[in-house]
Amino acid sequence: MRIKVLVTKYAFYSKVGYIPETTKQNQDAFIVHPKVLGNYTQHLFGVADGHGQYGKEVSTLVKQHYSTLFEANLKLMSVVDAFVVSSEQLDKIIKQKIVDIDFSGTTCVIVYIHDQELYTANIGDSRAILCTYDKGSLLFQE
Protein backbone atom coordinates (compact mmCIF):
# COMPACT_ATOMS: atom_id res chain seq x y z
CA MET A 1 0.00 0.00 0.00
CA ARG A 2 1.42 3.37 -1.03
CA ILE A 3 0.86 6.18 1.45
CA LYS A 4 0.51 9.68 0.04
CA VAL A 5 2.51 12.26 1.97
CA LEU A 6 0.77 15.59 2.23
CA VAL A 7 2.32 18.49 4.11
CA THR A 8 -0.48 20.71 5.37
CA LYS A 9 1.13 22.49 8.29
CA TYR A 10 4.60 23.63 9.20
CA ALA A 11 6.01 25.96 11.82
CA PHE A 12 9.27 27.24 13.16
CA TYR A 13 10.50 28.56 16.46
CA SER A 14 13.71 30.19 17.50
CA LYS A 15 15.26 31.20 20.77
CA VAL A 16 18.36 33.36 21.12
CA GLY A 17 21.38 31.71 22.70
CA TYR A 18 22.24 32.76 26.22
CA ILE A 19 25.42 34.55 27.23
CA PRO A 20 25.37 35.92 30.80
CA GLU A 21 25.25 39.70 31.21
CA THR A 22 24.86 40.42 27.49
CA THR A 23 22.06 41.20 25.11
CA LYS A 24 22.65 38.85 22.20
CA GLN A 25 20.91 39.25 18.83
CA ASN A 26 19.03 36.25 17.47
CA GLN A 27 20.90 35.30 14.30
CA ASP A 28 18.61 32.47 13.14
CA ALA A 29 16.89 32.50 9.76
CA PHE A 30 14.33 30.05 8.37
CA ILE A 31 13.78 28.68 4.89
CA VAL A 32 10.17 27.82 4.12
CA HIS A 33 9.54 26.94 0.47
CA PRO A 34 6.43 24.80 -0.05
CA LYS A 35 5.59 23.51 -3.52
CA VAL A 36 9.09 23.34 -4.99
CA LEU A 37 8.84 23.65 -8.78
CA GLY A 38 5.10 24.26 -8.29
CA ASN A 39 4.56 20.67 -7.16
CA TYR A 40 2.35 20.00 -4.12
CA THR A 41 4.46 16.96 -3.19
CA GLN A 42 7.79 18.82 -3.00
CA HIS A 43 8.80 21.07 -0.11
CA LEU A 44 12.02 22.64 1.13
CA PHE A 45 12.57 23.72 4.74
CA GLY A 46 15.68 24.84 6.54
CA VAL A 47 17.28 26.66 9.44
CA ALA A 48 20.43 28.76 9.31
CA ASP A 49 21.99 29.52 12.71
CA GLY A 50 24.29 32.50 12.28
CA HIS A 51 27.29 33.15 14.48
CA GLY A 52 29.90 35.85 14.84
CA GLN A 53 29.77 39.58 14.15
CA TYR A 54 28.01 39.18 10.78
CA GLY A 55 26.13 35.95 11.56
CA LYS A 56 22.71 37.56 11.09
CA GLU A 57 23.71 38.86 7.67
CA VAL A 58 25.08 35.47 6.59
CA SER A 59 22.02 33.52 7.77
CA THR A 60 19.75 36.09 6.10
CA LEU A 61 21.55 35.56 2.76
CA VAL A 62 21.00 31.82 3.14
CA LYS A 63 17.29 32.47 3.70
CA GLN A 64 17.08 34.81 0.71
CA HIS A 65 18.95 32.68 -1.83
CA TYR A 66 19.08 28.98 -0.97
CA SER A 67 15.60 27.94 -2.14
CA THR A 68 15.98 29.77 -5.46
CA LEU A 69 19.38 28.19 -6.12
CA PHE A 70 18.19 24.74 -5.06
CA GLU A 71 15.10 24.89 -7.24
CA ALA A 72 17.12 25.97 -10.30
CA ASN A 73 19.72 23.25 -9.72
CA LEU A 74 17.09 20.59 -9.09
CA LYS A 75 15.87 21.08 -12.67
CA LEU A 76 19.33 20.08 -13.91
CA MET A 77 20.69 17.48 -11.49
CA SER A 78 20.01 15.00 -8.72
CA VAL A 79 18.82 16.07 -5.27
CA VAL A 80 22.23 15.36 -3.71
CA ASP A 81 24.06 17.34 -6.39
CA ALA A 82 21.54 20.19 -6.06
CA PHE A 83 22.28 20.36 -2.31
CA VAL A 84 26.03 20.53 -2.92
CA VAL A 85 26.03 22.92 -5.89
CA SER A 86 23.50 25.26 -4.25
CA SER A 87 25.68 25.45 -1.13
CA GLU A 88 28.79 26.18 -3.18
CA GLN A 89 26.98 28.91 -5.14
CA LEU A 90 25.66 30.42 -1.94
CA ASP A 91 29.16 30.45 -0.44
CA LYS A 92 30.30 32.61 -3.38
CA ILE A 93 27.35 34.99 -2.91
CA ILE A 94 28.12 35.38 0.79
CA LYS A 95 31.79 36.12 0.09
CA GLN A 96 30.78 38.76 -2.50
CA LYS A 97 28.24 40.52 -0.29
CA ILE A 98 29.93 40.44 3.13
CA VAL A 99 33.45 41.82 3.20
CA ASP A 100 34.74 40.45 6.51
CA ILE A 101 33.50 36.94 7.28
CA ASP A 102 36.70 35.55 8.80
CA PHE A 103 34.95 35.07 12.15
CA SER A 104 31.31 34.97 11.03
CA GLY A 105 29.14 32.41 9.33
CA THR A 106 26.20 30.08 9.80
CA THR A 107 25.35 26.48 10.30
CA CYS A 108 22.52 25.19 8.13
CA VAL A 109 20.21 22.22 7.95
CA ILE A 110 17.96 21.67 4.94
CA VAL A 111 15.08 19.21 4.56
CA TYR A 112 13.66 18.42 1.13
CA ILE A 113 10.50 16.35 0.82
CA HIS A 114 9.59 14.79 -2.52
CA ASP A 115 6.59 12.50 -2.45
CA GLN A 116 7.50 9.77 0.08
CA GLU A 117 11.20 10.58 0.14
CA LEU A 118 12.86 12.81 2.70
CA TYR A 119 16.34 14.22 2.13
CA THR A 120 18.44 16.17 4.60
CA ALA A 121 21.70 18.06 4.31
CA ASN A 122 23.58 20.01 6.91
CA ILE A 123 26.62 22.17 7.38
CA GLY A 124 27.80 22.53 10.96
CA ASP A 125 25.95 21.34 14.03
CA SER A 126 22.35 22.15 13.10
CA ARG A 127 20.03 19.15 12.89
CA ALA A 128 16.52 18.26 11.82
CA ILE A 129 14.06 16.25 13.90
CA LEU A 130 11.20 14.29 12.38
CA CYS A 131 8.02 14.26 14.48
CA THR A 132 4.77 12.40 14.06
CA TYR A 133 1.60 11.71 16.01
CA ASP A 134 0.59 8.20 16.96
CA LYS A 135 -2.66 7.73 18.88
CA GLY A 136 -2.45 11.23 20.33
CA SER A 137 1.18 11.02 21.39
CA LEU A 138 3.93 13.04 19.79
CA LEU A 139 6.85 10.88 18.65
CA PHE A 140 10.30 12.27 17.85
CA GLN A 141 12.94 10.70 15.67
CA GLU A 142 16.33 12.29 14.93
Brief characterization of the structure:
The chain is of the alpha+beta class and 142 residues long.
Structure commentary:
- With 142 residues, the protein is an alpha+beta fold.
- The chain has one domain (28-141): PPM-type phosphatase domain (Phosphatase 2c, domain 1, 4-Layer Sandwich).
- It contains two helices and six strands, in the order ββααββββ.
- It has helices spanning 55-74, 79-97; strands at residues 28-34, 42-51, 105-114, 117-123, 130-134, 137-141.
- The strands form two sheets. Strands 1-2-3-4 form a four-stranded antiparallel sheet, with helices on one face. A two-stranded antiparallel sheet has the order 5-6.
- α1 (55-74) packs antiparallel against α2.
- The longest helix has 20 residues, at 55-74.
- The two termini are 25 Å apart.
- 23% of the residues are buried.
List the helices and strands and how they pair.
Layout: E1 28-34, E2 42-51, H1 55-74, H2 79-97, E3 105-114, E4 117-123, E5 130-134, E6 137-141
Antiparallel strand pairs: 1-2, 2-3, 3-4, 5-6
Helix pairs in contact: 1-2
